[in-house]
């Protein structure tokens, strides 16, 4: 019982540290020390009567220690400037429309595209963006679209950039239609719905930002399903009606 209580306390400490400690190096040291202590605790005391349970526990704690050591290695890895998130963005400056995207930087997910584009946010004053930074962000977006053409989040990101940053509403909503065909998730469909609602309100002269909450989206989806069901039943009724008309005799 004492070993399990100490182990529970160590796990509680690791959970609290991952939530409260924001410095990567301090967090890596704490997690590695706690994982090593937890592994030594089970190796030294062997608290369970059955060897299989002890082996499973030791293997689990070893995997946790392995992850903690990887975090420690990443935190203290030399040659990586973690305080310069925009270090990759300048590699896109010399690109032309005919350049291939792969030599600049290989993007593996939509999160990298968003982080790189956000690093280009530069203001001349409180209301004016730097045009060169905007052009660089657009280049990064296009590289992301070229390398991840079927990712709906990247398409949404580019559509939002065209609408909010470049004020190109028609181009942005045209790109938004591509996101519908890219098999978006539930949250991505909600984002598309919000953008379309804003476009509808802007076209109608209403104040943007109204009726774009999740409740409205769920209600609209429910009404759409009901409308499709009624429409299908109406088509079936019309089909049966015309099928009856071509019959010579009706029962």
> Into which percentage range does the β-strand content fall?
under 5%
| Helix amount | 55-70%
Head-to-tail CA distance between termini: 81 Å
Q: What is the 3D shape? A: flat
Note the total helix count: 9
The low-confidence parts are: none
The tally of strands reads 0
Explain what the structure shows.
This protein is mainly alpha-helical and about 250 residues long. The chain folds into 2 domains: about 1-75; about 90-240, no CATH class. The protein is built from 9 helices and no strands. Helix 1 (about 1-20) runs antiparallel to helix 2 (about 25-45) and helix 7 packs antiparallel against helix 8 (about 185-205). The longest helix has about 30 residues, at about 215-245. It is flat. The N and C termini lie far apart (about 80 Å).
How would you summarize this macromolecular structure in one to three sentences?
The protein has 251 residues and is mainly alpha-helical. 67% of the residues lie in helices and 0% in strands. The protein has two domains: 2-75; 89-240, no CATH class.
For the structure shown, list the relevant keywords.
mainly alpha; 2 domains
Record the SSE blueprint.
Blueprint: H1 2-20, H2 24-45, H3 51-75, H4 110-118, H5 131-147, H6 152-165, H7 169-180, H8 186-204, H9 214-245
Helix pairs in contact: 1-2, 2-3, 4-5, 5-6, 6-7, 7-8
């Amino acid at each position: 019982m004492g070993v399990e209580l100490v182990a529970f306390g160590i796990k509680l400490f690791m959970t609290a540290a991952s939530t409260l400690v924001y410095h990567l190096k301090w967090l890596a040291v704490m997690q590695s020390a706690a994982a090593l202590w937890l592994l030594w605790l089970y190796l030294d005391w062997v608290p369970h009567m059955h060897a299989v349970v002890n082996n499973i526990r030791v293997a689990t704690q070893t995997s946790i220690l392995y992850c903690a050591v990887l975090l420690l290695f990443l935190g203290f890895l030399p040659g990586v400037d973690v305080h310069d998130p925009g270090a990759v963005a300048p590699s896109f400056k010399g690109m032309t429309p005919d350049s291939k995207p792969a030599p600049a930087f290989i993007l593996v997910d939509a999160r990298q595209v968003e982080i790189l584009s956000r690093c280009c946010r530069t203001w001349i004053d409180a209301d004016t963006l730097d045009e060169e930074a905007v052009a660089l962000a657009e280049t990064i977006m296009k590289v992301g679209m070229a390398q991840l053409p079927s990712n709906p989040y990247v398409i949404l990101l580019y559509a939002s950039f065209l609408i909010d940053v470049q004020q190109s509403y028609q181009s942005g909503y045209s790109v938004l239609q591509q996101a519908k065909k890219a098999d978006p998730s539930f949250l991505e469909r909600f984002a598309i719905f919000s953008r379309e609602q804003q476009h509808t309100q802007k076209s109608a002269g209403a104040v943007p930002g109204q009726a774009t909450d999740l409740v409205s989206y769920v209600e609209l989806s429910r009404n759409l399903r009901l409308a499709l069901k009624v429409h299908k039943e109406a088509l079936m009724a019309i089909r049966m009606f015309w099928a009856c008309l071509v019959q010579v005799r009706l029962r």
